[in-house]
Task: inverse folding
């Protein structure tokens, strides 16, 4: 659940995995980075597709910031939604846990001054542009990287089950905040 690349003399990562939030078979991103020759302290930029904890859980290890030198980029819409007190209050009881988990993972970076927000469609770094992909979450973001006439788009949760959603792209998932928009 993470992509690592170099751009503009910075080591960048898209999303941060789950940490141990989804069981003992996940949460090995820091260890795998080390095996690949990178220390989590070397990461300069983390580009968040959305704040669901299968994409941001790895930002923290208990109370410890895992990527202390990274600046986390997240759309303003996404950050405002998950940190907004009114949204939390309006959320059904069974959904409040997602707000609580999101806050546990992102607020330490906010408090450390390590979060930058952006508007869609404007380059963040040379060749790297955040694209609006709302529906799964209000500020869901894809990142388009263009270099030497080649393009790659980094995305998270465009679909959840290829076997189900390729033949029937209208299928939604319970985690979609706006299911109709997510299916578009």
Result:
């Amino acid at each position: 659940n993470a992509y690592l690349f170099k751009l503009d003399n910075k080591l960048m990562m898209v999303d941060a995995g789950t940490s141990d939030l989804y069981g003992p078979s996940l949460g090995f991103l820091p260890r795998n980075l080390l095996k690949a020759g990178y220390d989590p302290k070397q990461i300069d930029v983390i580009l968040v597709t959305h704040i669901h904890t299968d994409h941001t859980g790895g930002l923290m290890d208990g109370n410890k910031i895992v990527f202390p030198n990274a600046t986390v980029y997240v759309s303003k819409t996404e950050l405002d939604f998950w940190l907004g007190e009114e949204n939390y209050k309006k959320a059904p009881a069974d959904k409040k846990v997602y707000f609580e988990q999101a806050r546990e993972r992102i607020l330490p970076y906010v408090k450390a001054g390590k979060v930058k927000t952006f508007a869609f469609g404007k380059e963040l770094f040379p060749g790297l542009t955040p694209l609006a992909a709302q529906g799964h979450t209000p500020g869901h973001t894809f990142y388009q990287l263009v270099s030497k006439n080649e393009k790659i788009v980094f995305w998270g949760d465009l679909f959840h089950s290829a076997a189900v959603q390729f033949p029937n792209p209208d299928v939604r998932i319970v985690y979609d905040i706006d299911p109709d928009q997510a299916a578009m």
Notes: The helical segments are 29-35, 53-56, 76-83, 85-90, 96-111, 162-165, 179-182. The beta strands are 3-7, 10-14, 45-47, 60-61, 64-65, 71-75, 115-118, 128-132, 141-147, 150-154. The chain has a mean pLDDT of 88.
